[in-house]
Write a structure and sequence with these properties.
Beta-lactamase; alpha+beta; about 400 residues
Length: about 400
């Protein structure tokens, strides 16, 4: 009996120790999962964000130094010169009638027929807009993202028919949605809310996936598609999106008036955005929160001049970045439908972006020889105006 009682106490002691060990492991596991791991992830995210911020800053400094010392190409020189011939007067009158403030560049049969600024770049100092003025281009950047993705298709690293789940986990309908559907805004993806804090590129992609809405797989303009495509590009290449844009577009074309936000604020030729009433647009200058451009990964955080923007769009159409056959494959829809960052009308494409009280639009034929570029800084929509100018310009062009 004594032996049984003694064994009973030992058994309860062992069970108690085992239960305590299990509870301890569970408590520590919960502590690790719910506190330590999130804290570590937050610290890692801050470190990544700090690294990318510093990298962007040094990249921008390098770009500005190159801009100051690099010998400009003849094309860049030509596109920085003001051109206002008598034949352009009807176009100027149309712009003035529309109260346009910004820079206009018009190219017909490869010749610049109008390149000038209207209104103020800085109303307080009296500095005027001109060919050298720099603006944000907003959603026009999506077309650049599409081209980077198509570059990977040419290299055999990606296929437009691939499901997004092959590259980014955690998307509920990822096996049913292809990269092509995302390029054409037919994925059904949208965001439940706006990104609340500044994040690294990887953090932006993770946050976007965690906050996706899933709708019908039909056309709906939702920028998150291109945020996720930028994530695919970074994952496949192992490089930051901004670095790839610099290498594959800016440096390849020897552009000297382009960069990423927020470095526009350090540029002496920045054109400020204004959102005052139509009767007095310069009465209120728009101040953009840093969060706004941080969350525009792959979708709208690039600035440029009218001349640089023309060179980028022409280079894409002329097969200087990806093959011309690849451009045709990329832009698979027409009749004015949205496809891979452009509205494709068959014989010409239109791009448009609105951000920070600035509006940008390009209209260009497939040869890149006929084009209109409008960059505005008084919160006006430029899409219809650019299209009207283009059609007026090409009348009689063969």
């Amino acid at each position: 009996m004594k032996h049984a009682k003694k064994w009973g106490w030992k058994r309860w002691l062992i069970l108690g120790l085992f239960a305590g060990l299990v509870i301890g492991i569970a408590v520590y596991g919960s502590y690790d999962y719910f506190y330590l791991r999130p804290q570590t992830e937050v610290k890692e995210e801050r470190a990544r964000r700090k690294y990318e911020t510093e990298l962007n800053r040094h990249r921008a400094i390098e770009q500005r130094l190159q801009n100051a010392t690099r010998q400009a190409t003849s094309t860049t020189d030509r596109l920085m010169q003001q051109v206002i011939p008598s034949e352009a007067q009807p176009f100027l009158k149309k712009l003035e009638a529309d109260h346009f403030s910004g820079t206009v560049l018009m190219v017909r049969k490869g010749k610049v027929i109008l390149n000038t600024g209207l209104g103020y770049a800085d109303a307080e100092s009296g500095r005027l807009n001109g060919p050298e003025s720099l603006y944000q281009i907003g959603s026009i950047q999506k077309g650049f993202t599409a081209v980077l993705l198509m570059k990977l298709v040419e290299q055999g690293k990606v296929h437009l028919t691939d499901p997004i789940s092959r590259y980014l986990p955690g998307i509920r309908t990822g096996k049913q949605v292809t990269l092509r559907m995302m390029l054409d805004m037919r994925s059904g993806f949208s965001l439940k809310r706006n990104q609340p804090t500044r994040l690294s590129d990887a953090g932006i992609v993770r946050w976007s996936i965690a906050n996706l809405n899933y709708g019908a797989k039909q056309y709906a303009y939702e920028p998150v598609n291109f945020v996720l495509l930028a994530g695919v590009i970074e994952k496949v290449t192992g490089h930051l999106y901004a670095d790839l844009i610099q290498q594959e577009i800016f440096k390849k074309l020897k552009l000297t008036h382009s960069g990423f936000m927020p470095e526009l604020y350090r540029e002496p030729n920045q054109s400020f955005g204004y959102n005052g009433p139509k009767a007095n647009p310069y009465s209120r200058r728009y101040v953009e929160p840093s969060l706004n451009y941080n969350r525009e990964l792959g979708t709208g955080n690039i600035y440029t001049s009218a001349g640089d923007l023309y060179q980028i769009m022409a280079a894409i159409n002329q097969g200087k970045i990806i093959r011309r056959s690849s451009v045709a494959t990329l832009r698979d829809l027409n009749q004015g439908q949205y496809t891979a960052g452009v509205y494709n009308f068959g014989d010409y494409t239109l791009t448009h972006g609105v951000v920070a009280a600035q509006s940008a639009a390009t209209v260009m034929d497939n040869s890149g020889q006929n084009a209109v570029v409008l960059l505005a800084n008084t919160d006006q929509v430029t899409r219809d105006l650019a299209q009207a100018l283009y059609h007026d310009m090409i009348k009689g062009v063969k």
